[in-house]
Amino acid sequence: MPIFTPGRRWQPPFYPFKREPLGRRLLAAAERLVKGPAFGCRMCGNCLLQETAFICPMECPKGIRNGPCGGSTEAHCYVDETRPCIWYKIYDRSFAMGRQEKLLEVLPPLDWNKVGTETWGDVVQQVRAVGVKTVATGLIARDPARRAQTWDAVFRPVRQPDWWQGDSTYHAPAYSEPLSQLERDLRAGQFVVTAEVGPPLSTATGKLTRNIEMIRPYVSAVNFTDNPSATARMSSIACSVLAKEAGAEPVMQIAARDRTRTGLQSEAIGASTLGIRNVLCLSGDSGRMGPSPMGRLDVVDLDSVQMLWILRRMRDEGRYLDGRDLKNPPQFFLGAAASPFASRPDFQALREQKKVNAGAQFFQTNCIFDLGGLEVWLNALAQRDVLGKVYILAGIAPVKSFKMATYMNDSVPGVSIPKPILKRLEAAGDGVQEEGVAIALELIEGVRKLQGIHGVHLMAVGWEEIVPRIITEAGLAPEPQKAVS
Q1: Greater model confidence, 33 or 290
Q2: How far, in Å, are 82, 388, 454 from residue 173 at the CA level?
Q3: In whole angstroms, what is the distance from residue 329 CA to residue 414 CA?
Q4: For the chain: N or C, fewer Cβ within 10 A?
Q5: What single DSSP character describes residue 267?
Q6: Which of 47, 52, 55 is nearest to 14 (CA)?
Q7: Residues 6+ apart with CB under 8 A from 282
Q8: What CA dihedral angle connects 42, 105, 335 and 281, to 10 degrees?
Q9: From CA 170, how far away is CA 356, in angstroms rounded?
Q10: Tell me, what's the pLDDT at 76?
Q11: The whole model's pTM is what?
Q12: How far apart are CA 86 and CA 102, in angstroms?
């Protein structure tokens, strides 16, 4: 198995924003000449090649450093269809080389003070710190464990600075009592229902409030999307506050696409202060899916795994990313998106395990239309001992029209609709809405039988009025409360 990246470097290298000493500039030039053609290196100054099967993750157009996004496919990158998904290639090579477990390590965001500079100097300094003789004898030792320990002693401090200290182990929540009603219902073993309400495109809140009040009696919590398809809408935090005022429990979504690390921490503290307890961390749709004029597509300051890591440490360890103490930490029940059909089940299971290790306590999946494929994904999660550590809500989307179904199947990353369902919707003609409801009810009935599923998440996509009917006909509506005499 070769360890070189074939083909041309897809993106140009980063260049530093500061003047470097001549020696470091010469070393950086040499490193660029070697690692560029060999590994597709972009000179990020925060090298992860040891963990990513010697393929530079910075070739990802979204700049994601902890695994593929929910739109990954074997065929191509959904942001730029002229290139492959670099993370699919990283996973493919890692599994072939038997290095897949290294992909579980939660890797830090870029330190932009080092971007464009070399990494070899950092490695040399670490070799000196460990001891040249110790490193030399350790790397040629017959014992594989000693060789691995020596290798890690050199490279781990380089890729895991003191302000991050990422690892590949599971971190259980540091609190005991549930933080939200959603978490309380899940812990109680209820088959939970959550539903999505689309934020308005303006400051008008009438329809939003009516939708919240309509859905509230039927669900444990209401989700508010965060600028889906990279299109501006009312913020998720504002909708969440309005939901609380209407007596509903919100799930606030945060898309990494629009956040810096400073902005994330600030927003987290603000949301917790406002009483928002459920947070869903997403990498977010690429700006490629949004309207013109298009913003930068090549840099995501944080990915969803890094967001989970930061928020979990703020909550459980009471500290900011930069190490400062946080005397009154935010309180969150942390969630993430899961993509059962984005790529191979074993790839996705590892990606999902990494999110759970980083801090995800519940998953809301992409739209499910293939129960057999969902079961394969659940089995892959079970093999990685994930199912007992996370609550999973299966995403169900009632389809309103055949046109909507074809669009979702062809254009929405991570969503696949089997041909038999597409044929049913096409054959339904004017009755396509009723057929869409029937399919949704069949899928709910199916997922309720699967071990590892703790509820459903309804994504009506502008058809919120159908949600109460689906919940009622699925037999999931809460029993009316008896009046106390």
Answers
A1: 33
A2: 42, 14, 19
A3: 34
A4: C
A5: H
A6: 47
A7: 226, 253, 254, 255, 256, 304, 336, 337
A8: -10
A9: 7
A10: 81
A11: 0.92
A12: 17
Tokens of 76: 């191509």
* Amino acid letter, 267: E
Q: 483: pLDDT confidence band, cut at 50, 70 and 90?
A: very low
Residue 455's DSSP bridge partners are: 192, 393
Place of tokens 């390590």: 105
User: 274-291 as b/e, with b when 16 or more CB fall inside 10 Å?
Assistant: eebbbbbbbbbbbbbbbe
In whole angstroms, what is the distance from residue 32 CA to residue 471 CA?
57
160 contact partners, CB below 8 Å, separation of at least 6: 105, 108, 166
Burial of 440 (0-12, 13-18, 19+ CB in 10 A): buried
Average pLDDT of the segment spanning 167-174: 94
484 contacts: CB under 8 Å, gap ≥ 6: none
Query: How far apart, in whole angstroms, are the C-alpha atoms of residue 391 and residue 202?
Result: 34
pLDDT for residue 105 = 94
Strands 455-458 and 221-224: unpaired
Nearest CA among 247, 255, 251 for reference residue 332: 251
SS3 377: helix
Tokens of 329: 């930490």
pLDDT at position 480, please? 58
d(CA 223, CA 334): 13
Residues 270, 280 contacting (CB under 8 angstroms): no
DSSP assignment letter at 319 = B
Amino acid at 449: K
Cα 361 from Cα 183, distance rounded (Å): 9
- Given the structure tokens 């070697």, which residue do they identify? 34
Q: Is the pLDDT of residue 398 over 90?
A: yes
Q: What does the alpha-carbon distance between residue 89 and residue 24 come to, in Å, rounded to a whole number?
A: 31
**Is pLDDT at 5 greater than 70 in this prediction?**
no
The pair phi, psi for residue 464, each rounded to 5°, is -60, -30
Token pair for residue 212? 């919240």
Spatial separation of the C-alpha atoms in residues 280 and 363, rounded to whole Å = 8
> Which range has the worst mean pLDDT, 102-116, 150-164, 291-305, 420-434?
291-305
Q: What are 247's two structure tokens?
A: 């007596």
pLDDT in tens, 88-112: 889 999 999 898 999 999 999 999 9
- Other Cβ atoms closer than 10 A to 239: 27
